[in-house]
Amino acid sequence: MASNSNITLKGLSKILNLSISTISKSLNDSSEISQLTKDRVKEVAKLYNYQPNRVAVNLKSGKTKTIGVVLPSIQNYFFNNVLNGIEQTIENTGYNILISITNESHKKEKQHLNSLANGLVDGFIISVAEETQQLKDVEHYKNALALKKPIVMFDRVAEAIESNTVIGNDKQAVYEATSYLKTKGKKHIALVTTLQNLNVGKERYEGYKKALEEFSNEAQLEIVLKTTSPTVESDFKSFLTSNLEIDAIIALDEESSLGAHKMTKELNKQIPKDIALIGYANTKIAEHMSPKLSTINQHGFKIGEIAALQLLHQLSQNVVTNKRTIVSSEIIHRQTS
């Protein structure tokens, strides 16, 4: 009866009375070995639950069969969606995923990237930390590329690095949201954000600005609140009470969206009659809010799929490429707009 525990090449060699070299070549379908012998070896290997030693295989090939996924946070619904897209795409490819969280720290991102690039992963899928975008220090990315580790960046990118990027059409998405509210008769549209230090936040602001400028016959001054995650609710409450003319809000991130929705209701404003609201938030959360929150869907799962496929292609072809892919966002209108 075959053992349930994994057997080694040496064990198979003893059972079959063949050399370890012959066993190895048979399992790798070498043309040097007869088909009869290969079939016999594979049958016994299956019977005894033989599994190749991954470490040994990786050492021989020079590949780790591991992809490093570096994220600023896992608390954000968008990054969770992207990660799901990556995982489902990588599944059954023979690759493993090693996840690293930077918590928006440049120091952590640098440490993680340098450590992982030193023989632990074959390539990276990364969204840049907030501090890295502020400091514009990307030497650790250059070091990884110098070690021939391909990088695919998504959402937040380092423009100075030549690598594949998968991003949303942030400017266009907020432009369309702002324009929609204008066509609904909203004359004082406010913008609320905690992303003012990030490229995505700046792009979204430009979309808002462009839409206001295009309605020249109904010129509106910008009404913008730049806040932080811990203080968004208190800041927004003061902001709204100081700008009573506001009749619509576009919130550029989940914290701003949830905070604006909550505080608008606490101030006894009717949504969307008094103040309309479009934000960024998890679909499940948005649909369980009262009233249900209209959101801009970034299609995070699709972004994850594309990023993973692009990295897998580079790894299979042993190349490093420089390609930009844009995934269009979509406004999901619910009860707040």
From TrEMBL:
InterPro entries: HTH_LacI (IPR000843), Lambda_DNA-bd_dom_sf (IPR010982), Peripla_BP/Lac1_sug-bd_dom (IPR001761), Peripla_BP_I (IPR028082). One of its GO terms (molecular function) is transcription cis-regulatory region binding. SUPFAM superfamilies: lambda repressor-like DNA-binding domains (SSF47413), Periplasmic binding protein-like I (SSF53822). The keyword Magnesium does not apply. Transmembrane segments: none annotated. SMART domains: HTH_LACI. This is LacI family transcriptional regulator.
